[in-house]
Amino acid sequence: MTQPLDFKRNTAAPLDLGWVNSIKVNRNAADRRAASLANRRTVKKEYQAAWLIRAVECMDLTTLGGDDTPGRVERLCMKAMRPLRTDLMQALGIDSLTTGAVCVYHEMITPAVKVLQGRLPIAAVSTAFPAGLSSLETKLREIELSVAAGATEIDIVITRQHVLTGNWQALYDEMLAYRQACGEAHVKAILATGDIVTLDNVAKASWVCMMAGADFIKTSTGKEGVNATIPVSLVMTRAIREYYEQTGFQVGYKPAGGVSTAKSALQYLTVMKEELGNDWLQPHLFRIGASSLMTDIERQLEHYVTGNYSAAHRHAQP
């Protein structure tokens, strides 16, 4: 991923169980703040267009279907390198635009490498995605194979039972092993927030993964019953902010699952700006995991340029 020359990658710190166990989230206050962010902050006209372009730049364009084929992944990669039509690009005054990365299964890394040839990061989901229920040895080997195949980012899934049973040491040790297996590849820790039940658990899991060296914390696999939400994002971004204040390391954030409309993308951009500031509105610190989102953003940008909405089927699908 492109990042400033002075960017300091997160490194592991000792697990502070006293701190983790002391974390409490005020659910009512979180819900009120989330409602304020979701409903009261809006951008219009040229400002909305600019924010939507930034959403494209911060998107992990994703295909994680059981029916994925090399051809589908190749189309996804072409779309990632040229997400908007030429006429829209010209009308918006944009010379070049790409998504932040593409996100695929391990078996689809090779066709992605063939098309992208190092021009965009390739994120591979790993560690027995999406459930994470295989041996640690198997999961570590999968990470190693994905990095060897050309993945520059690894989206891992944590073992949810560690969170649900409060075994923070086991979660820390697991995350630390994942971080080490990734080597130079950046690692995004998927918390599966819809499965770990409470906002307290979300906050604690966020802290433990960051202490173990996660470069990003990510909400969901997209396969849970509940995926990214604004309250969860508020809790995770505030954990990132406090971690930065205590350690000096900037950890990235990735909402994923259910972010399918331009409006929802704008809400997550608003969370990032208001909770973390402009520094986090960059691809090296913010990603949106999405597939169908691109179509709606294209439609909104076409409306801005022409005054008319186009039918969704007019837009190329990966």
TrEMBL record:
<dbReference type="GO" id="GO:0004139">
    <property type="term" value="F:deoxyribose-phosphate aldolase activity"/>
</dbReference>
<comment type="similarity">
    <text>Belongs to the DeoC/FbaB aldolase family. DeoC type 2 subfamily.</text>
</comment>
<protein>
    <recommendedName>
        <fullName>Deoxyribose-phosphate aldolase</fullName>
        <ecNumber>4.1.2.4</ecNumber>
    </recommendedName>
</protein>
<dbReference type="Pfam" id="PF01791">
    <property type="entry name" value="DeoC"/>
</dbReference>
<dbReference type="GO" id="GO:0016052">
    <property type="term" value="P:carbohydrate catabolic process"/>
</dbReference>
<keyword id="KW-0704">Schiff base</keyword>
<dbReference type="InterPro" id="IPR011343">
    <property type="entry name" value="DeoC"/>
</dbReference>
<dbReference type="InterPro" id="IPR002915">
    <property type="entry name" value="DeoC/FbaB/LacD_aldolase"/>
</dbReference>
<dbReference type="GO" id="GO:0005737">
    <property type="term" value="C:cytoplasm"/>
</dbReference>
<keyword id="KW-0456">Lyase</keyword>
<dbReference type="GO" id="GO:0009264">
    <property type="term" value="P:deoxyribonucleotide catabolic process"/>
</dbReference>
<dbReference type="InterPro" id="IPR013785">
    <property type="entry name" value="Aldolase_TIM"/>
</dbReference>
<comment type="pathway">
    <text>Carbohydrate degradation; 2-deoxy-D-ribose 1-phosphate degradation; D-glyceraldehyde 3-phosphate and acetaldehyde from 2-deoxy-alpha-D-ribose 1-phosphate: step 2/2.</text>
</comment>
